[in-house]
Structure formats: C-alpha cells, structure tokens
Amino acid sequence: MKSGGVRSGTRAAITAAHLRTDRWWLAPAATAAGLLAFVVYSTWRAFSNSDYYAAPYVSPFYSPCLAENCEPMRNGPNWEIFGSWWGLSPALLVLIFPLGFRLTCYYYRKAYYRGFWASPPACAVAEPHKKYSGETRFPLILQNIHRYFFYAAVPVAGILTYDTVLAFRNEDYEWGHMGLGTLVFLVNIVLIWAYTFSCHSCRHIVGGKLKHFSKHPVRYRAWRLVGRLNARHMQLAWASLVSVALADFYVYLVASGVFDDPTFF
Ligand code: FES
User: Fold this and answer.
1) pLDDT band at 247 (very low <50, low <70, confident <90, very high)
2) Could you tell me if the CB of 199 is within 6 A of ligand 1?
3) Cα of 201 to ligand 1 centre, how many Å?
4) Closest Cα to residue 57, out of 216, 253, 258, 264?
5) Domain spans of the chain?
6) pTM of the entire structure?
C-alpha cells in the first residue's frame, strides 16, 4: 500500500492543499447530490412494493417480476420463480443486476469516488486520505466483475425492450395503442441501450484482442459504433439514470390514480 500521495517526499514541497482557484468542488458536489437523489428515490420505490403496474405499463424497477407476490399483470414478463416464501418487494430480486452494472461502471466509479469519498475530490486537488490502494484490495477489487454485470445487463435491457413493445397494446391486448407512457418507455429504452452499448467492457468485447481490424470488418464497424457511443458514456449514464427513474415515476403516477395516461391512439 502506498502512502503519502501528493504529500510524499518525492513530490514538490507545496504547502497549499491545492492551487486551483476555480469552483472545482461544484462538479463533485452536484454529482453527489444527483446520485443521492436517485438512491433515495429508487430505494423508496424498490421497497414500496406497490403502484408498479398500470396497464399496459410495467415499471422498469419491477420487470421481470420473479415472485409469486407480484401484482397480477396482463402485460410484461411475470415468472414466478420465487414462491410464496418470498415476502419482500419483488423489485429487490431484479434490481441487483442493473444496480451492480451501474455500481461497477467505470464512469460511476469515478463519480462516486469523487463525490462521496473525495478520492480524489477533483483533478489536481489532493485527497484527504493518507493511504491509497486503488482497486487492488477487497472490497474495491470486486469492481473487476463489471464485465459480468454487463452480460447480465443485456438480457435485462432485452426484457425492458419487450415491455416497451407491449406498451403498444391496450388493456384488451389489442395492438395499435400509443399513450404518453409509450413515448416515455420508448425514450427510456433507447437511452438504456445506448448506455449499455457505450460500456467500456462492451467496447473491449466487441473490438478487443484483435491483431488486425482489416481481417474482422464486421467487428471493426461495430467497434467504431460502440466507440462513438463510448465517447458519450458519462452523458448516457446520466440520461438513462434519469429516464429510468422517470419511467418508473410515470407508472407510479398512473397506477396511483394521480392522472390517466393520455392516449394518442
Ligand atoms: Fe460504464 Fe460499463 S463502463 S457501463
């Protein structure tokens, strides 16, 4: 474990904590506030175990529904893998996958290391901790499983796509319905896929370990596409985080009777 960091004897002897004169604290503070707001909202919704289905919409926090105690849903995957012994909210059974995906994401790691642990607070601002072991030890070494969360995130995004397709049916199983909720779900699923494909692990899976791109033209094209998304990974991380919360909130409002879903046709 290395110690000292910017205060070690090998570094320039500058007494000031840092030499930045701009409002460097604004970005980590805003990041921490945004993440905290999402954590509070999603925790409330995940444990509430109610108002997550308003035909034809299923909250993305509760899909697929894997427990016997799920609300009866005519739309959306409802697989009762967990029997009557499961008494908690069914959202807790599925949220582990998107949560793990985001928690181990390269961007979110940077965001919460800076926002919550000040490690470091910002570029060229010394961190307050005396010791630094990076991600070489437990528990942070577990961040290496991000690739496997990516594998889990893909089928979850596939199921949310299925839910979005079913949002084009009305309560009587007839196709051709489109409400405001359908649009909310469409925007959300596009952003979810864009975020998922922009993942650094995805980029490596698609284009990594190749010696000659010229011999793998399909993978090369896919890698270029993923690379373009990857350059926007931070923006997509935030946009999809907001959109998934909004999609859930929309279902909550309709399911709890605050308003009826405006229908276009
Ligand atoms: Fe962010 Fe994989 S690096 S989702």
Assistant:
1) very high
2) yes
3) 6
4) 253
5) 26-255
6) 0.92
